[in-house]
Amino acid sequence: MQDLSVRPLTPDRWGDFETLFGPSGACYGCWCTHFRIPTSQRKTMDGAAKKRFIEERVAAGPPPGLLGYVGERPVAWVQVGPRSELPQWNSPKTVSRPLDPADAEDRSVWAVSCFFMNSHDRGKGYSHRMLSEAMNFAKASGARLLEGCPIERTKQSKSVGLYVGSQRIFETAGFSEIAKRKDGRPLMRLVL
C-alpha cells in the first residue's frame, strides 16, 4: 500500500471530495447522502440536490468524514460521525438500527457508515487505514462507542457493495458483533 495520509473533510477540501466522487457523485449519484436523508426525501432529489446537501453539511461542520490521499491525490473516503446525523442508519427497518433506541440521539454513539474508493483504488488495503483513522477521529471527537454494519463477504474484493465496509476489516480493528438482523450483515461495535 502506498503512503496514505488522512485528513478531515473540511470546506477547504471540498474540491478534493468532488474529485474523488467524480461527476456522477460516487455510487449512483449518492454523494454519500444515503444514510443522511430519509428515503422518502432522497427519492425526490436528483444528483445535484444531493451534492448541494452534502456540500452544505460540510460547510456547516464539523467534518462528516475523512479523506485519504496518496500524495495530493484523493483516493479514499470514510463517513464517520454521530448516529444522530444518520436517520436512515437508525431507521427501525434497517439492519444497522441501534440496539438501544436512545443511541440514535446520543451524540457519543458514532457510526462508520460508508467507504468509497474508485474502482482502480480498491483492493489496496486503504479501507483498513481509513477505519483506523475513523476510530482515532471518533475518539478525539468525544465518541464513547463506534459502530459499523459491514457486509460479511462479497464475490469480489473490489465490489461496490463494500461501501459499508467488510466484516474482516472491522474484526481486524477490534470491533465485536453485537447483533445480526440479516445473514451477512452484522452490527458491530467498538468501545473507545
Automatic annotation (TrEMBL):
InterPro entries: Acyl_CoA_acyltransferase, GNAT_dom. SUPFAM superfamilies: Acyl-CoA N-acyltransferases (Nat) (SSF55729). GO terms for molecular function: acyltransferase activity, transferring groups other than amino-acyl groups. It comes from the Bacteria. This is N-acetyltransferase domain-containing protein. Residues 4-192 form the N-acetyltransferase domain. Signal peptide: none annotated.
